[in-house]
Structure formats: C-alpha cells, structure tokens
Amino acid sequence: MSNIMSQSTAVIVMNIRSLPRRLWMSLAMVFASAVVVAILLAFLAMAKGFEATMQSAGSDDIAFFMRTGSAAELNSSASKEQVNLIENAPGIIKDEQGQLVSPELYVIVDGVKKSTQQEANIPLRGLSQRGVDMRKGFTLMAGRMFTPGTDELIVGAGILREFDGFDLGQEIHFGKYTWKVVGVFSTGGNVFESELWADAKVIQNLYNRGSSYQTVRARIGSPDDIAAINDYLKSEPRLTHEVQTESAYFATQGKSLEYMAIFGWVISSIMALGALAGALNTMYTSVSDRAMEIATLRAIGFSSMSAFIGTMVEAMTLAVLGSLVGALVAFIFFDGLNASTLGGSFTQVVFSFQLTSDLFVKGITMALVIGFISGVFPAWRAARVPVIVAFQSAR
C-alpha cells in the first residue's frame, strides 16, 4: 500500500509539472468549471436571499389572521365587527390599553425601479402604532414617525434602495392622492423594508375601504395558543378566518422563489455537460501527451494504479481550482447584491443575494462531479498504456 502511495505521489508531481505544456487546455477546463459554479451560486444565492428576507420577518409570538382560502394579504378581508371578535380570542395578550391587536390594510401603489426605470407594484400598508410595535427590529433610520390622521408615510429602507422618488421630505403622488415622506425605517433587512407605512384610517378614507381591513395581527403568549384560537374561530360563525403564526406564514411565502434554485440547478447541469465535454478532451490530451512518460514509469516498475490515481488527481485539481475561481467571482459580484422581485402579494420584495457556506459546498461539489467524470475515463486509459510504448518512442 505504501509503495502504491509513493508511486502515485511521484506520478502526481510529474503530471503537475507537465501542466505548462497543456496550459491553455488546462485553463479552459478551469474556466469551464468556474463558469458553471458561478452561475449555480448566483441562482442559489438569489433564492436563499429571498427566502431569508421573507422568513426573518415572522415572529412565533404573533398570531396572523387571514380570510380562509386567501393565499396572500391582498386577497384577504376583515370587517370591523370581525376585528372586534378576533380581539376576544383566547391567548391574546393585553396591556393597559387593551388587547395587543393590529388590524391592517394592504394597498398596491406604483413605484419606479432605479435599475430599469419601469413601474412596479409596491405595497402601501395601513396600520397603527400597535402594528409598528409588533415588528421586531423596527428602527427609524431618519426622520420621524407618521402622524395619525394625516397624509404622511414612512418608507422602508429597501424601497429607498431600489426605487426612485421616495427620499425623505419628498411628496409622492399615487393617483389623485399626495403623500409626504416623513421617515425612513429599517426592520433588520426583512420583507417589511419593502413597504410604505401610513395610518390605516387615512388609507380607509382615501381608498373607500369604509371600516374594513384585510389582515389582523395579535400578540400571543406562545405558539401553543394557536390551537385554542383555532377552536375559537371554528366555534364563531361570524368569523371566516384562519390563523397561523406570523413566522409560519412568511415561511410559506419565502418558498415562492424555490423555482429559482431549481432553475439554477437545471441551467448549471446543462452547462456542466458542456464543461464535461471540454474537460474530457483536456484529460485525454493530457494522457496522450504523457503516454511515453507513463509507459516508462510502468517499465521501471510503477503500477497501473499509480497512473490511474495520478490522472484522477490532475482532473480533480483542475476542477477544484475552477470551483474556487467560480466561488470567488460569485462572492465578489453577487453576495449582498440588492434586487427586487414579485412576491406572493403581487408586489415587489426587495432582498439581497445571500451566499452562505452551504451554497459554496454545493458549488464545489458540482465541480468535483465534473472533475471526477472527466478524469475517470482518461485515467482508465492511462492505466492501460502498454509498456512497449516506452521502447517504441525510444527508437
């Protein structure tokens, strides 16, 4: 065993030293692997960032009420009477002002994306100070809170990054209504930063919503209270709503971009086939170029296994180099990149691409698969190079 290891080491060194003779073909294999890894990581980072932006918005101690059958807030509704009934549900925490409940509105307005200068849907949320207090990580980055009963609003930091016309102090026109931006807020980078917030009662008046809302949030003692609230909803015929924790709702919404990760795997796999063809050509050329050297080693006692291992290591080394280059390119150009896409409520969600260690592992694994397949057949040929080749070349 030690003899095979020492022989394999010698062959590996010989292969590495001979790389300059095949420099451009070797670099082509590295480049092909790098492109595959970079593209795969870009798609995975996009899906990961979107999912993280959605899921980080949810809290386990917030009960989220929507009308039964509604897939998103935009499709839900809740009358004032139903809000009052929800306030009486068991498990909802109270303070000196009453139950910690936030009925909210969700209205679609237009914004102009900085990147394309095209209009896109963004959400204008109507809520009260109760609703603001229920958002974990809420901080005012600039300006002040909107004054209840006025046409003032505050802007999420994500909106400010991705859309034109929402700077502090600016007046915004939505149809025939004019609003003034009086504050910029952050919620730690989650989906709420993709929203505009204003007083719920003002939005009810301006958009002819009467006294109705769309969703209701309520602070609860623990996620276990959801079961008791569900029983209450089923026993009250005037309520046509379902409840879940806010974290469960956003976890479901966050999976809406999973197709992007699948698409990334499909595209990368197709590209990997092309990279594999080039890599196989590179490795077959490498074996042919070193046929005399391999045969000479065989003639002086080296085993065929050492030739096989040496060729495999060469292929895997080039693939790993390609994966590292691709991962570095993906990190430089995509990690933290701001983007926006359509979310579950048909409005834009601003998020950042997120490259994590597990994604890098997936990218390197893809490259190793390319390296293994591109190396195993040429390595088999190297192991079968006849010893007589050494003598033929010497004549």
UniProtKB/TrEMBL annotation:
UniProt entry tagged with the keyword Transmembrane: yes
Keyword Lipid biosynthesis in record: no
Alphabetized InterPro entries for the sequence: ABC3_permease_C, MacB_PCD, Macrolide_Exporter_MacB
Gene Ontology CC annotations of this record: plasma membrane
UniProt-listed Pfam families: FtsX, MacB_PCD
Domain ABC3 transporter permease C-terminal: 266-386
Bilayer disposition of the protein: Multi-pass membrane protein
Main location: membrane
GO molecular function: transmembrane transporter activity
Domain MacB-like periplasmic core intervals: 27-234
Compartment(s) where it occurs, according to its Swiss-Prot or TrEMBL record: Cell membrane
Protein name, UniProt field: Uncharacterized protein
